[in-house]
User: Which sequence fits this backbone?
């Protein structure tokens, strides 16, 4: 048992997962699951008890038994004790102080990556203020490559998300042209298909690849976010698959609810790698996650939703992904009730993912029945851009007309880039300049570049 006394009240926490849950900043999903602290004082007591806990405890006490969960087995079996050794003597509170110190340089944090377990990282994030999450994440540098180089200092990338409610190629193409004209799409041009079928997926993949080639071999990657089994069948039919996509979670049970397991993810990774379509690298996986997915599937095993989320990052890093995206406010107010909770969760996810060595992006978003609005998203966008987020979404008008939620627009990405003097991927930036869409200072140009883009994108094949 774990305990801490505040004034005359002693709070007792039966096991490690209870302690972690009680120490978590307030959010509606944990209250829905019945794992949250009952009072602010109990939350502080749990945080104090957690701060005194040695990091090594997380190597000896599994939150979900090793025999019952393949994600637990993955976490334990892949842990690098040599990488952990420099911090093995620290408590969780000491670890927070270390991360905020000058000693924790980008190179040092990179060296620690495989010595950290998701539970250690989730625990330390629960002791951090928002400014701590921003400061630590800003130190982390994670570089990935496929047709361009993502994650470097001074860069902010975007996923161009041209979804359409009927997968109409004309509507998708219009959104793509609009987004590229604003410099969006260097992380990926990725479509959530309205119909998850092999013929629809193949048709969209062919359209995207043909467009990319017509646009003077635009140095980016494309993806249709179908289920991994659909992508595997598309590969078997010879479709031009750059990236394999899959939603994942932090327990074996939640992944089963998504229709996947580690063996299937491994098959998808190997099949996509075998195509060798990258030019500057071969990182071919794109994963999406989100706090609340384990709870919504009744697959959380009593874990708080943030700890379950960070365990999903162990799954992602096992497959050396090009992109990982926390769709932070997508599930709804049952899990993150308002703008304050969404902002906190987005900063947590980004920081924890970066500490675990992931190229972490965030879909800065909310559903229309949440107590949040675009001002909250502006705040989170600005904070994440300051923290060095790898990529954000780019949608026409910030409104996804197929998935029916609010995210960030092409203009929002321009705002963040201009405010903080950030640039797209270097290869993509050079392409924008060469084709007259941007000047060498990253400023949007009008005129011949836009006319060229429209002509090339719409010319007959």
Assistant:
């Amino acid at each position: 048992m774990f305990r801490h006394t505040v004034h005359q009240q002693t709070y007792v926490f039966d096991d490690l997962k209870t302690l972690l849950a009680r120490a978590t900043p307030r959010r509606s999903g944990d209250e829905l699951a019945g794992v949250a602290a009952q009072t602010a004082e109990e939350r502080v007591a749990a945080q104090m008890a957690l701060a005194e806990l040695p990091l090594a405890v997380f190597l000896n006490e599994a939150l979900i038994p090793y025999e019952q969960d393949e994600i637990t087995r993955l976490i334990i079996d892949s842990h690098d004790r040599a990488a952990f050794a420099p911090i093995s003597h620290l408590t969780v509170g000491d670890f927070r102080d270390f991360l905020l110190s000058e000693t924790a340089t980008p190179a040092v944090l990179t060296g620690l990556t495989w010595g950290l377990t998701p539970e250690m990282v989730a625990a330390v994030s629960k002791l951090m203020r928002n400014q701590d999450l921003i400061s630590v994440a800003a130190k982390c540098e994670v570089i990935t490559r496929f047709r361009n180089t993502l994650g470097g200092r001074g860069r902010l990338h975007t996923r161009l998300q041209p979804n359409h409610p009927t997968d109409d190629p004309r509507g998708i193409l219009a959104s793509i042209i609009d987004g590229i004209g604003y410099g969006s799409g260097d992380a990926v041009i990725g479509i959530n298909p309205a119909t998850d079928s092999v013929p629809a997926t193949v048709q969209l993949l062919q359209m995207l690849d043909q467009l990319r080639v017509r646009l003077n071999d635009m140095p980016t990657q494309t993806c249709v976010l179908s289920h991994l089994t659909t992508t595997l069948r598309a590969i078997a039919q010879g479709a031009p698959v750059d990236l394999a996509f899959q939603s994942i979670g932090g327990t074996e049970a939640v992944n089963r609810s998504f229709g996947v397991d580690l063996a299937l993810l491994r098959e998808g990774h190997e099949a996509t790698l075998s195509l060798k379509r990258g030019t500057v690298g071969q990182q071919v996986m794109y994963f999406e996650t989100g706090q609340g997915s384990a709870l919504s599937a009744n697959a959380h095993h009593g874990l708080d939703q943030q700890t379950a989320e960070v365990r999903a990052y162990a799954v992602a890093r096992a497959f050396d992904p090009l992109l990982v995206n926390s769709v932070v406010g997508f599930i709804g107010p049952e899990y993150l009730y308002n703008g304050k909770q969404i902002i906190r969760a987005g900063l947590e996810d980004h920081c924890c993912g970066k500490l675990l060595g992931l190229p972490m992006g965030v879909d800065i978003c909310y559903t229309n029945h949440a107590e949040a609005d675009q001002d909250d998203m502006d705040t989170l966008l600005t904070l994440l851009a300051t923290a060095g987020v790898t990529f954000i979404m780019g949608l026409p008008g910030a409104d996804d007309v197929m998935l029916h939620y609010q995210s960030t627009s092409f203009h929002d990405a321009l705002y963040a880039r201009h405010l903080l003097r950030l640039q797209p991927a270097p290869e993509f930036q050079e392409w924008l300049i060469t084709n007259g869409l941007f000047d060498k200072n990253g400023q949007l140009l009008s005129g011949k570049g836009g006319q060229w883009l429209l002509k090339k994108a719409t010319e007959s094949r």
